[in-house]
Amino acid sequence: MYSFDYYNPTHISFGEGKITELDKLVPVTAKVLVLFGGNSARSTGTLDEVKAALGERNIVEFGGIEANPTYETLMQAVAIVKEENIDFLLAVGGGSVIDGTKFVAAAAVFAGDPWDILLSWGAKVTTAMPFGTVLTLPATGSEMNSASVITRKEFQAKLSFMSNHVFPQFSILDPTKTLTLPERQVSNGVVDAFIHITEQYLTFPVNAPVQDRFAEGLLQTLVELGPLALSQPDNVEVRANLMWVATMALSGVIGKGVPHDWATHMIGHELTALYDIDHARTIAMLLPGMLDIRRESKQDKLLQYGARVWGITQGTNDERIDATIEKTREFFETMKIKTRLSDYQLTKTHIDEIMIQLERHGMTALGEHQEVDLAMSRQILERNL
Amino acid sequence: MYSFDYYNPTHISFGEGKITELDKLVPVTAKVLVLFGGNSARSTGTLDEVKAALGERNIVEFGGIEANPTYETLMQAVAIVKEENIDFLLAVGGGSVIDGTKFVAAAAVFAGDPWDILLSWGAKVTTAMPFGTVLTLPATGSEMNSASVITRKEFQAKLSFMSNHVFPQFSILDPTKTLTLPERQVSNGVVDAFIHITEQYLTFPVNAPVQDRFAEGLLQTLVELGPLALSQPDNVEVRANLMWVATMALSGVIGKGVPHDWATHMIGHELTALYDIDHARTIAMLLPGMLDIRRESKQDKLLQYGARVWGITQGTNDERIDATIEKTREFFETMKIKTRLSDYQLTKTHIDEIMIQLERHGMTALGEHQEVDLAMSRQILERNL
């Protein structure tokens, strides 16, 4: 196990009806900017419930944060924070709204050009506004970590930042709020969480059995419950457990003290930025080929993953790895997510475009061994055609 | 899964050489009371290393905190805090020193009689001094939670308290510091962590697969590495992983959203208070009989535990449970911890004494169903004779 620092001060309030806790969690005198995405926060009644729980507090609303939240939109929220003397932010939504709120929290008090927050990967963030979240779409884990991914439209760039200053003070996780999600988002959430876990787990062994077994436990739970979330869309217990998996997946407990990959995410971000494909779908169409091409350096963990998560213990190493990758692909397809570029009308021509963006963004040494250079990225993309 | 609140703001700094981080973690202007136990902090050189890392800071030392730290001793530390205008506490040791430091942190700023902290189970604690820890004996998980167990000698009472105000600000976990531990303490630590996990896991199913699998992963790791810690006493990687298991076992990740038992601990505390037997040994001699007597209400989880941790899947339910309890007992014995009251020269006469204390302390409805009344406690004790 590597040396590590673990720190995660976010207070999680989990369960049905927990939105009423806002009255305890948000300072009584706060002037609150409530940030949300499209119309669903309003149409499902969650926004009204949030406002009722906030009682007499002074509230300003900011809707319209996109999936893959944009710098352009968020800077409008920053302007409102300043104009209206907002002193507390409340994100109501999924990972995009929460990621966006983290950026607003840092940018609103940032001395200098807020774009530097992203160019410095968050290193230049020295303070941020306090904020909490009400999670309605479990997937990204943003509700219990300090990371954020922001898209700048004019540059077709998707960049991330991290800072201990942008942990949510609290996150309210009410699984009943996820019952109104469209099936597409349920599928996306399960697959997104799955690949968050593999990015921290499918690397190489460093003798970290706790992190490994926690990761395997989360993956097993997704494999078991993911399909049930589609076949039993009203089953709150299934939703509750999936919600907790997604939160734990990126809270640090499985990722501290072990190597990380994230090549799938880095390449996936380019696909979203270029073609506006759902994040989860981009990484689902990349992972199988990614594991195939990199099977040698990932061999030990692929065999362990195959055995412990899929029960694959027979055959040569290559046979076991083939079967393991196939099981992974099948799982995504069972979740109704297509796993090949061609399923999204992407061809060799598009791969050329993606390569240009990867090069432009310096994505030339990805993965736990930095071995994913541009040539290997092209191989991976072609393997997934 | 039950509704829950999870909050754990302790910063963990894990790895060899991390004691030097004290210089960043303790405020530069702090006047620090360094609390420790017996002579080992000094003889192993850890205390010197801590003092070197604290540099020019003003330091007062307070040694002599006992295993099962006493109210009497800790109130002396409280007096020193007040006399010397101490504003930061640093625990250097294992669970006893850390538990004691938590009490000092709360008692030193408590308005009223500090004994009320324990009589109110911590409910009356509204503030506490800031403190950090340097962990030298992994076992109790106290380095990353808000619980503390204190003994008041004059009453032969062992009472606990919890408060969000007594989370350590940071804990430094350097696994090399555990290499000098006597074998007895290594054994105790492994078994203590094991039973911390079973208290939160071996109850009844509430459809909480994440918590279950995390608990099983920790138990599997103890089963795998515990014996290696005895046979390979210089293996730092083994120690590192055991250290992380013990911390995770009581950090909240496996215990939130599920029922808890703790009957084994409650009865065990009486044995320590009466006969000064190591905490881990008291619970090791209670757990097998506890599971045997309560096999019906715990059936589902005992079968799950047997299958997933011990691979026991054949036979009738009772046969599987018998085999599972036997495996648990054997594991403790492999860790060189005896598992019967008679191994500690305790007889029926002692059971009568224990019963008097249980009644005196109101321990009349223990366990996840409050079904462990005095009669059942006697049965359990007799089954473990």
From TrEMBL, chains A, B:
Q: Does the keyword Oxidoreductase apply?
A: yes
Q: Which InterPro entries match?
A: ADH_Fe/GldA (IPR001670), ADH_Fe_C (IPR056798), ADH_Fe_CS (IPR018211), BDH-like (IPR044731)
Q: Which domain of life is it from?
A: Bacteria
Q: What are the Alcohol dehydrogenase iron-type/glycerol dehydrogenase GldA domain coordinates in residue numbering?
A: 9-175
- Name the coenzymes or cofactors required: Fe cation
Q: Name one GO molecular function term.
A: metal ion binding
Which is a Gene Ontology cellular component entry for this protein? cytosol
- Please tell me whether the keyword Oxidoreductase is annotated for this protein: yes
> Keywords of this protein's UniProt record, alphabetized?
Oxidoreductase
Task: Please name the Gene3D superfamilies in this protein's record.
Answer: 3.40.50.1970, Dehydroquinate synthase-like - alpha domain
Q: Where is the Fe-containing alcohol dehydrogenase-like C-terminal domain?
A: 189-354
Into which family does the record put it?
Belongs to the iron-containing alcohol dehydrogenase family.
Its protein name is: Iron-containing alcohol dehydrogenase
